[in-house]
Each structure stands twice: as C-alpha cells, then as structure tokens.
Amino acid sequence: MSARKAVVLLSGGLDSATSAAQAIADGYELIALSLHYGQRHDRELIAAKRVAEHLGINARFLVDVNLSQWGGSALTDQAVDVPIDGVQSGAIPVTYVPGRNTVFLAIAMSLAEAKGAEAIYLGINAVDYSGYPDCRPEYLEAVQHLATLSSKVGLEGNAPKLVAPLVMDSKVDIVHRALRLNVPIHLTWSCYQGEGDPCGVCDSCRIRDRALIDASRPDLATLVGQELYKQESQCATPVF
Fold first, then answer.
1. CA–CA distance from 203 to each of 30, 41, 93, 198 (Å)?
2. Contact between residue 232 and residue 213 where contact means Cβ atoms under 8 Å apart
3. pTM of the model
C-alpha cells in the first residue's frame, strides 16, 4: 500500500516548518514546495532546504516565479524599506506581497494533482500575523472551493484538501506546537532581511521573538528581541 502524500509549502520560516512537521505527524509522506518569488534574499530558501533535510523530506521542488518584476511590496522591491518601527494593527503593511499565496497555492495544487497528493499543508496564520488578507480562514475556504472546480481530480471529487493547522493558533501556540513536534527552530529563518543574523526589529522578527520569549524559550530569540522585550516590560508603551 502506497503512503498518503501531501504537498507542503515550505518557506523556511517557523510556521511553514511547523506545518510540515504536523503533516508528518498526521501520517503523510511529504513533497516540499518552495518558491523563489523575487524576495529580497535567499536565506529563507536555504533554511527551507535545511529544514526539509532535517525532517527527512526527500521529494523537494524549488519553483521560480518572479513577482519582483512589478514590485508592490517591501519584500520584492529593494526601493521600499522594510518597516522596523514595530507591529502596527489595522493597516496592511508594505510587506504584503500582492497575490503571493494565491500564486503559491495554484502551483501547489498543480503539483499535488500531478503527484497524487491528497492534501496541501500551509503555515498561514490569522491570529498573530501582519494583517495579510490571504492568511484568513475565509480566503482558505475560497481557494478550497476553487480546487474542486479547477482540476480533473476536483471534478472527480478528489480535490486535495487544503490544511492550515496553525491558522487559528497564536504565535505562542505555534512555538509550543513546534517544540512538541521537535521542529528544528534554530534552522528556520523568519526575518524579512537577509543579513548574517536576523535583524530583530522587522515585524516578522518581533512577532517571532516575542512568542519565543513568552513560550519560555528566550534562547531561541534574537538578542535584539530580548532587549526589546525588556524595554517593553519596563514602560507603558509597547515597543514590540
């Protein structure tokens, strides 16, 4: 009997690595899909490779789909600065990449159908996130409906199931889940910058560092994040 297969969107960040580990725990043989979409750096793709190797994922695909050609995001346009003033609520930040998850999922659905995978795992989160519209449950439901209409397997009633195990988890919950699943957190990369070490001040670093510290794992947080956390605990105005 052949193993149940699932495609996992593996960016190299904490959330996608935890989603991959959850898929393995759920009994799937994984096919990792990483995307070079014209992001500012390739550190997360290096991390994705290392995480996949650590988790024993042998089937890996790296697809080049260059969204940087038309810009529109601080993550794909070097002329737009990555914000470092702290996480702002309410507004969608300049780190939002137009259509990114829709493009990624379209490719993932194609791969899943070609390889006979019955599920697609992704690490989107609608709780402690930066306000991206394509990280919400209603978005996922819409794409799931599309999967039933847009493919041969969908018309046959076998569309791959989109699984977002972290979608309603807080970031602290994600860290706890990662620890339970033995995710190699130290191998993951979440920083929007691509320097030698995570910057500790971009939105992604701040959210990650705070969760690690709140989950009693400050050793995995950046030194900058640890200092920001100390400052916040000493003043009324949050700096995270």
1. 30, 16, 9, 11
2. no
3. 0.93
